[in-house]
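Table S2 (continued). Query chain:
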Amino acid sequence: MAEDLWSPIRSERRAQAAPLAVRMRPRTLDEIAGQRHCLGQGMLLRRLIEQDALSSMVVSGPPGTGKTTLAEVIAARTGAAVERAHGATTGVKELREKIESAARRLGESGRRTVLFVDEIHRLARNQQDALLEGVEAGSVVLFGATTENPTWAVAPALLSRSTVFRFQPLSEEDVATVLRRALVHEHGLGIAGLVLDDDACAHLARAADGDVRRALGALEIAASAVRGEHAPRIDLDLARAALDGKIPVFDKDGDEHYDLASALIKSMRGSDPDAAVYWLARMLVGGEDPRFICRRLAIFASEDIGNADPRALQTAVACWSAVERVGMPEAQLILSQCVTFLAVAPKSNAAACAIWEAMDDAREARTVPVPFTILDQTKRRLTRTADDGTPLAAGDGKYEYPHDRADGIGVQDYLGVTRSYYRPTDRGLEQAIREHLERVRATRREAAESGRTRGDRG
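Corresponding output:
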């Protein structure tokens, strides 16, 4: 009896103690900020919700964009029962129990069950397979939420039976609207006369990067600092202190880790040092391991610059060594120097293409034996005989020493088949390399045609 009498009071106290972002969570579709491409009037997802005609779906998007909020709105207005699970804590047994319960409910009353799985990407494959059984049988309507790319984070079989909706970061205007609403909402800050300066609001909305939960958290911190003052006011300095003191979210195993690395590489490849150094800064501020960045820079130097400027690899290796010795935060200077140098350097992937093509031939094409003339000297002495075992005539198949030639060019056949893997560009140093290689290849062709040979220097 006492439990029943006091439970409303306990619930009210828990609600009051909840963070501002939880208290301000929208209760209706119209209260959800942003996502008009999915939830605007006439959009598919909104029509499915309004018609209570949901099918299994996976909603992906950055943190704080409304995925969990949408699940709560659906739970509040749908005629279906709602079950909840979390990818990090829900095991196979519990998932199967929820699915079996949903199947019984459907059979006994005809009532469907929406199974909300937060962070669905954290479910192991066997857990996703258990979930698939319920989705295929129609026992549950899946609502999976993820911050990752669902095309690789969710099992293909499960994904093929779901509609994917992608939520976008909120615009600054949407975040600012939510912040202003929190000043006066019945579940908001609850500070009479609280003023949020326009520039402070704009800073919170901009620096939150579309994450309304982060913006509300910073607003609550700032409001706590002025609570009880005669004229409570949040100015720009206070807003900066409240938000800038928060550690940016950066999942080293998640999408953002690879997205930022990709942005850095593509910016350098596109010869844009400004974009490249910004993505470098994003990685460093987010807590990326500088050694990971160094590895990527060394690979880039060979793959995308190569012989167009051989100093690129030297710079990347020197950067790596210096970063290991210096450490952060000073290592940011070394990384910035390297990134900007690589971005403005002439580009060529000719050396990379050469090894890729040669590797393909080595794996797939017929094996090319080493020509006799360039075999190891000892092996040539042991193997250079006619079919009947007698030595071949002197002067047959001799190795020609390139340094004995005035031009220093080797004119023998060093491969045994006609192949051209390395094709220098006309960019940077490779222009001179290309011209030199053309002369080398022309000399070799002339020698082959004339049949000239040199003395054996074995």
